[in-house]
Amino acid sequence: MPYTAKTIEQLKRTSPAQAEFYQAAEEVLMSLRPLLDKNPKYQKHNIIERIVEPERQIFFRVVWMDDSGQIQVNKGFRIEFNSALGPYKGGLRFHPSVNAGIIKFLGFEQIFKNALTGRAIGGGKGGSDFDPKGKSDAEIMRFCQAFMSELYRHIGPNTDVPAGDIGVGGREIGYLFGQYKRLTGRYEGVLTGKGLNWGGSLARTEATGYGAVYFAQNMLEARGETLEGKTCAVSGAGNVAIYTIEKLYQYGAKPVTVSDSRGMVYDKHGINLETLKELKEVQKTSLEAYIKEHPSAQYIPLSDYPKGRNAVWTFACDAAFPSATQNEVNVADAKELLKNGCICISEGANMPSSPEAVDLFLAAKIAYGPGKAANAGGVATSQLEMSQNASMESWDFETVDTKLKDIMHGIFMNSSETAKEFGDPSNLVLGANIAGFRKVADAMIDQGAV
User: Fold this and answer.
1) For the segment 250-295, what is each residue's pLDDT rounded down to a tens digit?
2) Which of the residues are catalytic?
3) What is the tally of structural domains in the chain?
4) DSSP sequence for 338-365
């Protein structure tokens, strides 16, 4: 049995029932074969076996009281996966779907994504199966305080620096930071995504969406094209989707779709950004309300999606930006996108395309930017926030955005040049995986058997 396949089989035996983690590990490890064949040092130092095992897994109980006085119990997680390049860095996700396998898949992806940024950060991830939806501010505060009462023991500005993710925005980061400060008596850059008036960074909210668009523009420019005049499909309705749409408009493109957990909107005139921000950032309500303001748009509830498919990818587009969640683009969706003329995909979410869908994109040789490369702008800007905190400075929006744009260009060039080095110049999955892995693996070898 080949080296990588044997490692994956061993992983399935020792970490049972973690399908998303296996998928993420297999996607990376199987693409490393050209590197492993070329350079036996990685097998000699057992890097594959070491890199798939987290340095530390922290599971804990979170006990809190709801507004009716009832005690509630949730699970808390922090996976400190790899610190070869710097302190663990990765978000916290509060969502009912969170389990050990989800957090491990996200943490594993984070190792290579963070390496690609060129910043001094390792990989980690955390969260809870707590659902902020429908909870009062007081309930969310009490939960965050209970969560941090355990987590604070394991994090620090030079150890592990969490950020936000699904279900964890500025409000949650504020409550978490306040409890950390209360417990430790220290005011330090232990979390990113903070409020602008107490250590946060301008452009952090926009960074993942902007970065995905910058990456798409880099891919298209390498092929003699640009985003200008392109029709774009976008999924999701959170920060990533909203600011992907904002940046697409700035590049002269026309985003025509957006979606949430209840359904999606198609607006042939282009998604109205002002309405979208009002619904999702202010009112925090369903996209169904969009058509009240824009009756010519089409709203499709989840119940009316084509069987086995995501309706977002039904509409003709030149470029697609999956920005919601993992495995939202299956093989049927991929066929539909290609049939409808899609020539560019830049993933704003983590692992949004199934392995079979990715195979189709690569076979078609379209411009395909995998999530670990295309959505690295968020964590890169989090590291810029860490830099500002460490130097007690605050940079203006243009400074941060310029650095972000340069970082995304660097990720594209690194991935592209590595793909060329290994004989498959259009395959940025290969390029990103090998480039990220090689940097981490070489650091692990330098640091010995630890």
Assistant:
1) 999 999 999 999 999 999 999 999 999 999 999 989 999 999 999 9
2) 125
3) 2
4) HHTT--EEE--SSS-B-HHHHHHHHHHT
